[in-house]
Write a structure and sequence with these properties.
single chain, 470 residues, alpha/beta
Length: 470
Amino acid sequence: MNEILDVIIVGAGSAGLSALREVRKYTQHFVIINDGPWGTVCARVGCMPSKTLIEAANAFHRRGTFEEFGIRGGDQLTLDIPAVLRRVRRLRDDFVASTVKTTEELGERAISGRVRLLAPDRLEVNGTELRAHKIIIATGSRPVVPAPWNALGNRLLTTDTLFEQETLPARMAVVGMGPIGAEMAQALSRLGIQVAAFGGKAIAGLTDPQVIAVAADLFKKEFPLHMGEKAELSLVKDGVQVRAGSIEVVVDCVLAALGRRPNIGNLGLETLGVSLDEHGMPPVNPGTMQVADLPVFMAGDANDQAPLLHEAADEGYIAGLNAMRSHPICFTRRTPLAIVFTDPDIAVVGSRFEALDPAKIVVGEVHFDRQGRARAGQRNKGIQRLYADAVSGKLLGAEMCAPAGEHMAHLLALAIDRSLTVQQLLRLPFYHPVLEEGLRTALRALAVQLPSVNESDLSMCGAYNTEALD
Protein backbone atom coordinates (compact mmCIF):
# COMPACT_ATOMS: atom_id res chain seq x y z
CA MET A 1 0.00 0.00 0.00
CA ASN A 2 2.15 2.89 -1.30
CA GLU A 3 -0.49 5.62 -1.35
CA ILE A 4 -0.68 8.32 1.30
CA LEU A 5 -3.83 7.53 3.19
CA ASP A 6 -6.20 10.13 4.51
CA VAL A 7 -6.40 8.53 7.96
CA ILE A 8 -4.87 5.65 9.87
CA ILE A 9 -6.80 4.53 12.95
CA VAL A 10 -4.71 2.56 15.44
CA GLY A 11 -6.98 0.46 17.64
CA ALA A 12 -10.42 -1.04 17.07
CA GLY A 13 -11.99 -0.59 20.47
CA SER A 14 -14.88 1.71 21.36
CA ALA A 15 -12.95 4.88 20.50
CA GLY A 16 -11.42 3.43 17.33
CA LEU A 17 -14.76 2.17 16.01
CA SER A 18 -16.41 5.49 16.80
CA ALA A 19 -13.65 7.27 14.88
CA LEU A 20 -14.03 4.80 12.02
CA ARG A 21 -17.75 5.51 11.80
CA GLU A 22 -17.04 9.20 11.34
CA VAL A 23 -14.08 8.83 8.97
CA ARG A 24 -16.07 6.55 6.63
CA LYS A 25 -18.55 9.35 6.03
CA TYR A 26 -15.84 11.35 4.26
CA THR A 27 -13.30 8.97 2.77
CA GLN A 28 -12.53 5.38 1.86
CA HIS A 29 -8.79 6.02 1.92
CA PHE A 30 -8.12 4.77 5.41
CA VAL A 31 -6.97 1.72 7.32
CA ILE A 32 -7.74 0.57 10.84
CA ILE A 33 -5.06 -1.46 12.62
CA ASN A 34 -5.62 -3.59 15.71
CA ASP A 35 -3.17 -5.49 17.89
CA GLY A 36 -4.66 -8.60 19.49
CA PRO A 37 -8.31 -9.75 19.49
CA TRP A 38 -10.78 -7.63 17.57
CA GLY A 39 -13.80 -6.45 19.52
CA THR A 40 -13.93 -3.77 22.20
CA VAL A 41 -12.61 -4.08 25.75
CA CYS A 42 -16.16 -3.35 26.93
CA ALA A 43 -17.67 -6.24 24.99
CA ARG A 44 -14.83 -8.73 25.49
CA VAL A 45 -13.60 -8.30 29.05
CA GLY A 46 -15.23 -5.21 30.55
CA CYS A 47 -18.71 -3.77 30.88
CA MET A 48 -20.77 -6.54 29.37
CA PRO A 49 -19.32 -9.84 30.72
CA SER A 50 -18.94 -8.26 34.16
CA LYS A 51 -22.57 -7.14 34.22
CA THR A 52 -23.69 -10.59 33.07
CA LEU A 53 -21.82 -12.13 36.01
CA ILE A 54 -23.22 -9.49 38.38
CA GLU A 55 -26.79 -10.22 37.27
CA ALA A 56 -26.35 -13.92 38.05
CA ALA A 57 -24.79 -13.14 41.43
CA ASN A 58 -27.56 -10.73 42.39
CA ALA A 59 -30.28 -13.14 41.28
CA PHE A 60 -28.84 -15.85 43.54
CA HIS A 61 -28.26 -13.42 46.40
CA ARG A 62 -31.92 -12.38 46.25
CA ARG A 63 -32.88 -15.69 47.86
CA GLY A 64 -31.87 -14.13 51.20
CA THR A 65 -34.95 -11.88 51.06
CA PHE A 66 -37.43 -14.68 50.31
CA GLU A 67 -38.43 -15.48 53.92
CA GLU A 68 -39.34 -11.85 54.63
CA PHE A 69 -41.48 -11.81 51.49
CA GLY A 70 -43.19 -15.01 52.62
CA ILE A 71 -41.48 -17.14 49.96
CA ARG A 72 -40.30 -20.44 51.44
CA GLY A 73 -37.53 -22.80 50.34
CA GLY A 74 -34.88 -20.28 49.35
CA ASP A 75 -32.28 -22.13 51.42
CA GLN A 76 -32.63 -25.12 49.08
CA LEU A 77 -31.39 -23.23 46.02
CA THR A 78 -27.95 -24.00 44.62
CA LEU A 79 -25.74 -22.31 42.04
CA ASP A 80 -23.98 -23.97 39.12
CA ILE A 81 -20.95 -21.70 38.69
CA PRO A 82 -19.68 -23.41 35.49
CA ALA A 83 -23.13 -22.81 33.98
CA VAL A 84 -23.01 -19.17 35.08
CA LEU A 85 -19.63 -18.72 33.38
CA ARG A 86 -20.81 -20.47 30.22
CA ARG A 87 -23.69 -18.00 29.98
CA VAL A 88 -21.29 -15.10 30.54
CA ARG A 89 -19.14 -16.28 27.63
CA ARG A 90 -22.11 -17.02 25.40
CA LEU A 91 -23.53 -13.54 25.80
CA ARG A 92 -20.04 -12.04 25.68
CA ASP A 93 -19.38 -13.71 22.33
CA ASP A 94 -22.63 -12.28 21.00
CA PHE A 95 -21.68 -8.77 22.16
CA VAL A 96 -18.22 -9.14 20.61
CA ALA A 97 -19.66 -10.40 17.32
CA SER A 98 -21.71 -7.23 16.96
CA THR A 99 -18.59 -5.06 17.28
CA VAL A 100 -16.38 -7.24 15.07
CA LYS A 101 -18.97 -7.15 12.31
CA THR A 102 -18.10 -3.48 11.74
CA THR A 103 -14.56 -4.26 10.66
CA GLU A 104 -15.00 -7.67 8.99
CA GLU A 105 -16.32 -6.02 5.83
CA LEU A 106 -13.29 -3.77 5.42
CA GLY A 107 -11.06 -6.37 3.80
CA GLU A 108 -7.45 -5.20 3.45
CA ARG A 109 -8.32 -1.93 5.15
CA ALA A 110 -8.52 -3.82 8.46
CA ILE A 111 -5.02 -4.90 9.50
CA SER A 112 -3.98 -7.09 12.43
CA GLY A 113 -0.60 -6.14 13.86
CA ARG A 114 1.37 -4.06 16.31
CA VAL A 115 2.08 -0.48 15.33
CA ARG A 116 5.16 1.62 15.95
CA LEU A 117 5.03 5.30 15.11
CA LEU A 118 7.91 6.66 13.03
CA ALA A 119 6.77 10.29 12.74
CA PRO A 120 3.51 12.30 13.01
CA ASP A 121 2.54 11.04 9.54
CA ARG A 122 4.22 7.62 9.39
CA LEU A 123 4.09 4.29 11.17
CA GLU A 124 5.19 0.71 10.73
CA VAL A 125 3.05 -2.40 11.04
CA ASN A 126 4.07 -5.98 10.18
CA GLY A 127 7.27 -4.70 8.58
CA THR A 128 5.43 -2.31 6.24
CA GLU A 129 5.59 1.45 6.44
CA LEU A 130 2.34 3.37 6.02
CA ARG A 131 1.84 7.11 5.61
CA ALA A 132 -1.24 9.21 6.25
CA HIS A 133 -2.32 12.81 6.46
CA LYS A 134 -3.82 12.12 9.91
CA ILE A 135 -3.31 9.41 12.52
CA ILE A 136 -5.78 8.52 15.28
CA ILE A 137 -4.38 6.62 18.25
CA ALA A 138 -7.03 4.60 20.09
CA THR A 139 -5.02 1.71 21.49
CA GLY A 140 -7.11 1.20 24.62
CA SER A 141 -5.82 -0.07 27.96
CA ARG A 142 -4.77 -3.17 29.83
CA PRO A 143 -5.04 -4.29 33.49
CA VAL A 144 -2.41 -3.03 35.91
CA VAL A 145 -0.41 -5.97 37.28
CA PRO A 146 2.74 -5.37 39.35
CA ALA A 147 5.57 -7.30 37.72
CA PRO A 148 6.35 -9.53 40.76
CA TRP A 149 2.75 -10.78 40.78
CA ASN A 150 3.27 -12.53 37.45
CA ALA A 151 5.14 -15.22 39.40
CA LEU A 152 1.74 -16.39 40.68
CA GLY A 153 0.99 -17.88 37.24
CA ASN A 154 -2.58 -19.11 36.85
CA ARG A 155 -3.35 -18.23 40.46
CA LEU A 156 -3.47 -14.60 39.37
CA LEU A 157 -6.53 -13.40 37.45
CA THR A 158 -7.54 -10.10 35.91
CA THR A 159 -10.78 -9.23 34.16
CA ASP A 160 -8.97 -10.23 30.95
CA THR A 161 -8.88 -13.84 32.24
CA LEU A 162 -11.62 -14.09 34.88
CA PHE A 163 -14.45 -14.76 32.47
CA GLU A 164 -12.49 -17.46 30.65
CA GLN A 165 -12.42 -19.71 33.71
CA GLU A 166 -14.43 -22.93 33.50
CA THR A 167 -15.23 -22.63 37.21
CA LEU A 168 -14.10 -20.57 40.20
CA PRO A 169 -12.24 -21.65 43.33
CA ALA A 170 -13.67 -21.66 46.84
CA ARG A 171 -11.40 -18.88 48.15
CA MET A 172 -10.48 -15.68 46.32
CA ALA A 173 -8.92 -12.33 47.16
CA VAL A 174 -9.74 -9.17 45.27
CA VAL A 175 -6.95 -6.61 45.46
CA GLY A 176 -8.12 -3.13 44.56
CA MET A 177 -11.47 -1.57 45.45
CA GLY A 178 -11.89 0.77 42.53
CA PRO A 179 -14.95 0.38 40.29
CA ILE A 180 -13.86 -3.03 38.93
CA GLY A 181 -12.75 -4.40 42.28
CA ALA A 182 -15.90 -3.28 44.11
CA GLU A 183 -18.17 -4.85 41.50
CA MET A 184 -16.28 -8.13 41.30
CA ALA A 185 -15.69 -8.55 45.04
CA GLN A 186 -19.40 -8.28 45.74
CA ALA A 187 -20.43 -10.44 42.77
CA LEU A 188 -17.96 -13.21 43.59
CA SER A 189 -19.08 -13.19 47.22
CA ARG A 190 -22.72 -13.42 46.15
CA LEU A 191 -21.84 -16.42 43.99
CA GLY A 192 -20.89 -18.22 47.19
CA ILE A 193 -17.12 -17.75 46.97
CA GLN A 194 -15.21 -16.92 50.14
CA VAL A 195 -13.90 -13.47 49.25
CA ALA A 196 -11.40 -11.24 51.02
CA ALA A 197 -11.08 -7.74 49.57
CA PHE A 198 -8.21 -5.29 49.94
CA GLY A 199 -8.14 -1.62 48.98
CA GLY A 200 -6.80 1.84 49.73
CA LYS A 201 -8.75 4.60 51.45
CA ALA A 202 -11.40 5.12 48.76
CA ILE A 203 -14.01 2.86 47.19
CA ALA A 204 -15.21 2.79 43.60
CA GLY A 205 -14.13 6.33 42.72
CA LEU A 206 -16.00 7.97 45.61
CA THR A 207 -14.45 11.03 47.28
CA ASP A 208 -17.11 11.94 49.86
CA PRO A 209 -15.99 10.46 53.21
CA GLN A 210 -19.56 9.91 54.40
CA VAL A 211 -20.54 8.00 51.27
CA ILE A 212 -17.32 5.98 51.41
CA ALA A 213 -18.08 5.04 55.02
CA VAL A 214 -21.59 3.84 54.16
CA ALA A 215 -20.34 1.84 51.17
CA ALA A 216 -17.59 0.23 53.24
CA ASP A 217 -20.02 -0.73 56.01
CA LEU A 218 -22.42 -2.31 53.52
CA PHE A 219 -19.64 -4.30 51.83
CA LYS A 220 -18.31 -5.50 55.19
CA LYS A 221 -21.67 -7.11 55.89
CA GLU A 222 -21.10 -9.34 52.85
CA PHE A 223 -17.35 -10.05 52.86
CA PRO A 224 -14.18 -9.10 54.78
CA LEU A 225 -12.91 -5.73 53.56
CA HIS A 226 -9.44 -4.55 54.53
CA MET A 227 -8.73 -0.92 53.68
CA GLY A 228 -5.69 1.31 53.92
CA GLU A 229 -2.75 -1.08 53.73
CA LYS A 230 -0.84 -2.17 50.62
CA ALA A 231 -1.35 -5.85 49.78
CA GLU A 232 1.64 -8.12 49.23
CA LEU A 233 1.25 -11.49 47.51
CA SER A 234 3.34 -14.64 47.75
CA LEU A 235 2.93 -18.27 46.76
CA VAL A 236 2.53 -20.73 49.62
CA LYS A 237 1.80 -24.42 49.79
CA ASP A 238 -1.98 -24.07 49.88
CA GLY A 239 -2.32 -21.20 47.42
CA VAL A 240 -1.56 -17.49 47.63
CA GLN A 241 -0.88 -15.61 50.83
CA VAL A 242 -2.15 -12.03 50.87
CA ARG A 243 -0.64 -9.81 53.54
CA ALA A 244 -1.77 -6.25 54.27
CA GLY A 245 -0.47 -4.78 57.50
CA SER A 246 -1.41 -7.22 60.27
CA ILE A 247 -3.92 -9.07 58.06
CA GLU A 248 -2.92 -12.35 56.47
CA VAL A 249 -5.18 -14.64 54.44
CA VAL A 250 -4.52 -17.61 52.19
CA VAL A 251 -6.66 -17.99 49.08
CA ASP A 252 -6.75 -20.19 46.01
CA CYS A 253 -6.29 -17.29 43.60
CA VAL A 254 -6.23 -13.51 43.43
CA LEU A 255 -8.14 -11.13 41.19
CA ALA A 256 -5.95 -8.10 40.51
CA ALA A 257 -8.27 -5.10 40.21
CA LEU A 258 -5.80 -2.22 40.40
CA GLY A 259 -7.25 -0.41 37.42
CA ARG A 260 -6.10 -0.21 33.83
CA ARG A 261 -3.25 1.65 32.13
CA PRO A 262 -3.07 3.01 28.57
CA ASN A 263 -1.58 0.77 25.90
CA ILE A 264 1.13 3.21 24.86
CA GLY A 265 4.28 1.27 25.68
CA ASN A 266 6.64 0.82 22.71
CA LEU A 267 4.20 2.74 20.53
CA GLY A 268 6.86 5.24 19.50
CA LEU A 269 5.23 8.35 20.91
CA GLU A 270 8.69 9.83 21.38
CA THR A 271 8.96 10.13 17.58
CA LEU A 272 6.18 12.74 17.54
CA GLY A 273 8.63 15.43 18.63
CA VAL A 274 6.57 16.70 21.59
CA SER A 275 7.29 16.48 25.30
CA LEU A 276 5.93 13.45 27.15
CA ASP A 277 4.93 13.47 30.82
CA GLU A 278 6.27 11.10 33.48
CA HIS A 279 3.90 8.39 32.23
CA GLY A 280 5.04 8.75 28.62
CA MET A 281 1.85 10.58 27.62
CA PRO A 282 1.87 13.47 25.13
CA PRO A 283 -0.33 16.54 25.66
CA VAL A 284 -3.86 15.85 24.39
CA ASN A 285 -6.51 18.57 24.07
CA PRO A 286 -9.67 17.18 25.74
CA GLY A 287 -11.91 19.27 23.50
CA THR A 288 -10.34 18.31 20.17
CA MET A 289 -8.37 15.11 20.95
CA GLN A 290 -5.43 16.63 19.08
CA VAL A 291 -1.91 15.88 20.26
CA ALA A 292 -0.22 19.29 20.61
CA ASP A 293 -0.52 20.91 17.15
CA LEU A 294 0.21 17.69 15.25
CA PRO A 295 -1.93 15.83 12.68
CA VAL A 296 -2.33 13.19 15.37
CA PHE A 297 -5.32 12.54 17.62
CA MET A 298 -5.56 10.37 20.71
CA ALA A 299 -8.89 9.02 21.96
CA GLY A 300 -10.40 6.67 24.52
CA ASP A 301 -8.54 4.81 27.25
CA ALA A 302 -5.28 5.45 25.40
CA ASN A 303 -5.18 9.07 26.59
CA ASP A 304 -6.15 8.17 30.19
CA GLN A 305 -8.47 11.17 30.58
CA ALA A 306 -11.86 9.53 31.18
CA PRO A 307 -11.68 5.73 30.80
CA LEU A 308 -15.42 5.13 30.39
CA LEU A 309 -17.18 3.73 27.35
CA HIS A 310 -19.46 6.68 26.65
CA GLU A 311 -16.50 9.03 26.97
CA ALA A 312 -14.37 6.83 24.69
CA ALA A 313 -17.11 6.80 22.08
CA ASP A 314 -17.37 10.61 22.26
CA GLU A 315 -13.62 10.98 21.97
CA GLY A 316 -13.51 8.66 18.97
CA TYR A 317 -16.21 10.74 17.32
CA ILE A 318 -14.31 13.97 18.02
CA ALA A 319 -11.04 12.49 16.75
CA GLY A 320 -12.66 11.07 13.63
CA LEU A 321 -14.43 14.30 12.80
CA ASN A 322 -11.37 16.47 13.41
CA ALA A 323 -9.12 14.13 11.43
CA MET A 324 -11.19 15.02 8.37
CA ARG A 325 -10.96 18.78 8.90
CA SER A 326 -8.23 21.29 8.18
CA HIS A 327 -8.89 23.00 11.53
CA PRO A 328 -10.18 20.99 14.51
CA ILE A 329 -13.42 21.82 16.27
CA CYS A 330 -13.37 22.10 20.05
CA PHE A 331 -16.25 20.33 21.78
CA THR A 332 -17.70 20.94 25.21
CA ARG A 333 -17.71 17.58 26.96
CA ARG A 334 -20.69 15.97 28.66
CA THR A 335 -21.46 16.29 32.37
CA PRO A 336 -19.17 13.84 34.21
CA LEU A 337 -21.02 10.64 35.07
CA ALA A 338 -19.60 7.44 36.54
CA ILE A 339 -21.66 4.47 37.72
CA VAL A 340 -20.49 1.34 39.50
CA PHE A 341 -22.90 -1.59 39.40
CA THR A 342 -22.70 -2.74 42.98
CA ASP A 343 -25.76 -3.19 45.19
CA PRO A 344 -26.64 -0.48 46.08
CA ASP A 345 -25.39 1.33 42.98
CA ILE A 346 -22.45 3.66 43.45
CA ALA A 347 -22.43 6.80 41.32
CA VAL A 348 -20.62 10.11 41.00
CA VAL A 349 -22.24 12.90 38.98
CA GLY A 350 -20.95 16.33 38.06
CA SER A 351 -18.37 17.79 40.41
CA ARG A 352 -16.86 15.37 42.90
CA PHE A 353 -16.99 16.28 46.57
CA GLU A 354 -13.20 16.61 46.80
CA ALA A 355 -13.18 19.19 43.98
CA LEU A 356 -15.63 21.55 45.70
CA ASP A 357 -14.92 24.32 48.22
CA PRO A 358 -16.79 23.40 51.43
CA ALA A 359 -17.23 27.10 52.22
CA LYS A 360 -19.14 27.72 48.99
CA ILE A 361 -21.55 24.79 48.91
CA VAL A 362 -24.41 23.31 50.86
CA VAL A 363 -24.95 19.57 51.14
CA GLY A 364 -28.23 17.68 51.24
CA GLU A 365 -28.39 14.00 52.04
CA VAL A 366 -30.80 11.16 52.41
CA HIS A 367 -30.40 7.75 53.99
CA PHE A 368 -32.59 5.05 52.47
CA ASP A 369 -33.05 2.98 55.65
CA ARG A 370 -36.59 4.33 56.22
CA GLN A 371 -37.56 5.26 52.66
CA GLY A 372 -40.96 3.75 51.88
CA ARG A 373 -40.46 2.14 48.46
CA ALA A 374 -36.99 0.94 49.45
CA ARG A 375 -38.44 -0.80 52.52
CA ALA A 376 -41.18 -2.43 50.46
CA GLY A 377 -38.56 -4.01 48.19
CA GLN A 378 -36.04 -4.80 50.96
CA ARG A 379 -33.62 -2.38 49.30
CA ASN A 380 -33.58 0.08 52.20
CA LYS A 381 -29.87 0.77 52.56
CA GLY A 382 -27.45 3.38 51.32
CA ILE A 383 -26.96 7.14 51.17
CA GLN A 384 -27.17 9.93 48.60
CA ARG A 385 -25.45 13.31 49.01
CA LEU A 386 -26.09 16.29 46.75
CA TYR A 387 -23.95 19.44 46.45
CA ALA A 388 -25.31 22.86 45.48
CA ASP A 389 -23.90 26.37 45.21
CA ALA A 390 -24.63 28.13 48.51
CA VAL A 391 -25.67 31.38 46.83
CA SER A 392 -27.42 30.48 43.58
CA GLY A 393 -28.76 27.07 44.58
CA LYS A 394 -27.42 25.60 41.35
CA LEU A 395 -26.89 21.86 41.59
CA LEU A 396 -23.19 21.07 41.19
CA GLY A 397 -22.72 17.38 41.83
CA ALA A 398 -23.63 14.26 43.75
CA GLU A 399 -22.11 11.11 45.17
CA MET A 400 -24.14 8.14 46.27
CA CYS A 401 -24.32 4.52 47.26
CA ALA A 402 -28.04 4.12 46.80
CA PRO A 403 -30.76 1.85 45.42
CA ALA A 404 -31.67 2.83 41.84
CA GLY A 405 -28.57 5.00 41.87
CA GLU A 406 -27.88 4.24 38.21
CA HIS A 407 -31.19 5.87 37.29
CA MET A 408 -31.08 8.79 39.71
CA ALA A 409 -27.55 9.55 38.53
CA HIS A 410 -28.88 10.10 35.01
CA LEU A 411 -31.58 12.46 36.28
CA LEU A 412 -28.97 14.43 38.19
CA ALA A 413 -26.62 14.55 35.20
CA LEU A 414 -29.45 16.01 33.14
CA ALA A 415 -30.18 18.58 35.84
CA ILE A 416 -26.54 19.62 36.12
CA ASP A 417 -26.19 19.82 32.33
CA ARG A 418 -29.19 22.16 32.23
CA SER A 419 -27.83 24.25 35.14
CA LEU A 420 -30.97 23.67 37.18
CA THR A 421 -31.26 24.97 40.72
CA VAL A 422 -32.54 23.03 43.70
CA GLN A 423 -35.79 25.01 43.64
CA GLN A 424 -36.32 24.27 39.95
CA LEU A 425 -35.78 20.57 40.55
CA LEU A 426 -38.26 20.54 43.41
CA ARG A 427 -40.95 22.00 41.15
CA LEU A 428 -40.75 18.87 39.01
CA PRO A 429 -43.11 15.96 39.78
CA PHE A 430 -42.02 13.07 41.96
CA TYR A 431 -44.41 10.16 41.66
CA HIS A 432 -45.43 8.12 44.69
CA PRO A 433 -44.18 5.61 45.68
CA VAL A 434 -40.81 5.57 43.91
CA LEU A 435 -37.22 5.45 45.07
CA GLU A 436 -36.72 8.90 43.55
CA GLU A 437 -38.70 10.29 46.49
CA GLY A 438 -35.44 9.79 48.35
CA LEU A 439 -33.83 12.18 45.89
CA ARG A 440 -36.56 14.71 46.70
CA THR A 441 -35.74 14.35 50.41
CA ALA A 442 -32.10 15.25 49.70
CA LEU A 443 -33.22 18.21 47.57
CA ARG A 444 -35.47 19.43 50.38
CA ALA A 445 -32.51 19.19 52.76
CA LEU A 446 -30.65 21.48 50.37
CA ALA A 447 -33.56 23.90 49.95
CA VAL A 448 -33.81 24.79 53.65
CA GLN A 449 -30.14 25.87 53.58
CA LEU A 450 -30.56 28.17 50.57
CA PRO A 451 -31.83 31.76 50.32
CA SER A 452 -35.61 31.84 49.93
CA VAL A 453 -37.02 32.60 46.51
CA ASN A 454 -39.97 34.83 45.67
CA GLU A 455 -41.50 32.65 42.99
CA SER A 456 -44.02 29.98 43.85
CA ASP A 457 -42.48 26.68 44.81
CA LEU A 458 -44.97 23.93 45.52
CA SER A 459 -42.21 21.83 47.02
CA MET A 460 -42.10 24.18 50.01
CA CYS A 461 -45.35 22.70 51.28
CA GLY A 462 -44.49 20.75 54.42
CA ALA A 463 -43.87 17.04 54.35
CA TYR A 464 -46.53 14.73 55.74
CA ASN A 465 -44.13 13.45 58.40
CA THR A 466 -45.26 9.97 57.46
CA GLU A 467 -42.64 7.44 56.41
CA ALA A 468 -44.79 5.93 53.66
CA LEU A 469 -45.27 9.31 52.00
CA ASP A 470 -41.87 11.01 52.40
